[in-house]
Amino acid sequence: MLLSITTTHQPATDLGYLLHKNPDRVQTTDMSFGQVNVVYPEAGRDRCTAALLVEVDPVGLVRDRKGPKGNDFSLAQYVNDRPYAASSFLSVAINKVFGTAMTGRSKERPELADLAMPFVVHLPVVPCRGGEAILRRLFEPIGYEVAATTIPLDTQFPQWGDSRYLDVTLTGTCRLRELLEHLFVLLPVLDDDKHYWVGPEEVDKLLRRGGDWLGTHPDRELIARRYLRHDRRLTSDALARLLAEDGDVEDPDEVGAAHDQEEAAVEKPISLNEQRLDAVIDQLSAAGSRRVVDLGCGGGKLVARILRDTKVEHVLGVDVSYRALSAASRRLHLDTMAPRQRERVELVQGALTYRDRRLQGFDAATVVEVIEHLDPPRLGAFERAVFAYARPGRVVVTTPNVEYNVLFETLPTGTLRHRDHRFEWTRAEFAAWAGDVGSRNGYAVEISGIGPEDAEHGSPTQMAVFHR
Ligand code: SAH
User: Fold this and answer.
1) According to the model, what pLDDT value does residue 137 have?
2) What angle is formed at CA 456 by the lines to CA 454 and CA 461, rounded to 5 degrees?
3) Which atom of ligand 1 is nearest to the CA of 294?
4) Which candidate, 45, 53, 144, 445, has a CA 20 to 30 Å from the CA of 132?
């Protein structure tokens, strides 16, 4: 199988320094599944191409009992696409041969390693589950122009139709390190048939190589799922850690505050944040809730407010972000809290889209300014985890009312209130969602507005109170 990387950044031969591979000679590395060669078909001042040639030995593979999974038919162990198709073998080879380049280090050209340069990547045979559409979904959001042609099953008999392989060219401008990370992670995702067993260390690998770009990739769930061979536990772990490491916040010490600030800058004139917390607290005390879970607790402001009510026995704060939880822990002074007080509160890391026994047995759950951070296709998972599985007596959900945005002077038309918001709903959209969730799960719903009400556009925040 073959991967070629071409740059026209001049002097183009610097590619050799970046890859830590000398353009003047062929370099061969032995791997458990075969041999990997790095050669330079062209190495001029204007244009330089490095090719990674991976020779997989299918017979050796069978001997080592590392053949592709699910092929019990013995001939298939010998006659398969592994020798030529860009699969996880290529990814393993990239890691082995270009591992140093992927860390972004270059002894001879450190300044170049940090420079975005034009690249063209050619992969003549890419097995692609889901076809060209998936290929585009994976590479276009991270800045590549994608060209692909489907390879016919047999060039002499085009009437036999197309194979599942694509001839792929990716064109983009980025750092070499990023390019290698993208290929390393996404090639096995395209193939969706990793040749080796995956364990927890595979999650570390995914986060190490994808930490900078995967968190904001619209298909991050698909990528994590396929990369981890559809292992549910590993996938949920990876996503939780990925979201926690989301570059959403610049200053790790100011997590809750940073989120508050961006939104607050928009919402400031009315100190909406305070009014929101007041409205939620009012709901909890009216219902006399004693055990409360705050889902997506962020920096812990609401948890602190709930604790002030001495009738409340226990508060659990849950967030996917480790940074948010440490900010919350500092805000609450958990480590110096008096023991009796300390027993009333707990903070745990968790994702709201996965069933979690720790969330069961609460009188009330609060979900304040969180749902708009979920990708819309994940709202169903959120509903099942919270309303069908955890089943608190009451659920208080708040979310922005997008209709009100036109009244925020500092918000450019058509933009949402925070960079990480995946959507903001109109009142009708929120009411429809809440009504459906309520009736599907046996909760009655009341909807109201928080903040000053505009005759035409309503209130800036909308709140749904669900009760069983
Ligand atoms: N409720 C807080 C924070 C709102 S910001 C407040 O009102 O100030 C949204 C929070 O939801 C962030 O802290 C983010 O880490 C968290 N979050 C986003 N997606 C999540 C998920 N899938 N599971 C758990 N928490 C999530």
Assistant:
1) 93
2) 50
3) 1
4) 53
| Six token digits for residue 231 | 């292992």
Query: In angstroms, what is the span from residue 424 Cα to ligand 1's centroid?
Result: 15
The answer to whether 96 and 9 are in contact (CB under 8 A) is no
Residue-number span of the structural domain to which 374 is assigned: 261-467
- Whether residues 352 and 440 fall in one domain: yes
Give the model's pLDDT for residue 215: 83
Please report which helix (H) or strand (E) contains residue 150, including its range.
strand 145-152
Does the Cβ of 369 fall within 6 Å of ligand 1? yes
| 291 plus 380 within the same structural domain | yes
Q: In what order do the strands lie in the sheet with 291-295?
A: 345-349, 314-319, 291-295, 364-368, 394-400, 461-467, 444-450
In a domain, 23, yes or no: yes
Same domain? For 166 and 265 the reply is no
Q: What is the pLDDT of residue 255?
A: 46
Q: How many other CB atoms sit within 10 Å of the CB of residue 47?
A: 16
Is the CB of 297 inside a 6 Å radius of any atom of ligand 1? yes
Closest to 8 (Cα-Cα) out of 120, 170, 147, 144: 120
Give the model's confidence band at 114: pLDDT under 50 very low, under 70 low, under 90 confident, else very high.
confident
Q: Which of 189, 248, 250, 249 is nearest to 220 (CA)?
A: 189
Q: Is the CB of 373 under 6 A from ligand 1?
A: yes
Q: Are residues 290 and 381 in the same domain?
A: yes
Q: Is 49 within the bounds of a domain? A: yes
* 319, 296 Cβ separation under 8 angstroms: yes
Q: Which atom of ligand 1 is nearest to the CA of 367?
A: 1
CA–CA distance, 359 with 313 (Å, rounded to integer): 15
Whether 359 lines ligand 1, by a CB cut-off of 6 Å, is no
Q: Where are the alpha helices (DSSP H) in 129-193?
A: 131-139, 176-191
Using left for φ > 0, alpha for ψ between -120 and 50, and beta otherwise, residue 130 falls in: left
Q: How far apart are CA 334 and CA 274, in angstroms?
A: 23
The mean-pLDDT minimum among 291-295, 371-375, 395-399 falls in 371-375
> Global pTM?
0.54
Question: Can you read off the two tokens belonging to residue 1?
Answer: 């199988």
Confirm or reject: Cβ of 229 under 6 Å from ligand 1: no
Atom 3 (ligand 1): residue with closest C-alpha?
Answer: 298
Question: Would you say the CB of residue 368 lies under 6 angstroms from ligand 1?
Answer: yes
Are residues 315 and 435 both part of a single domain? yes
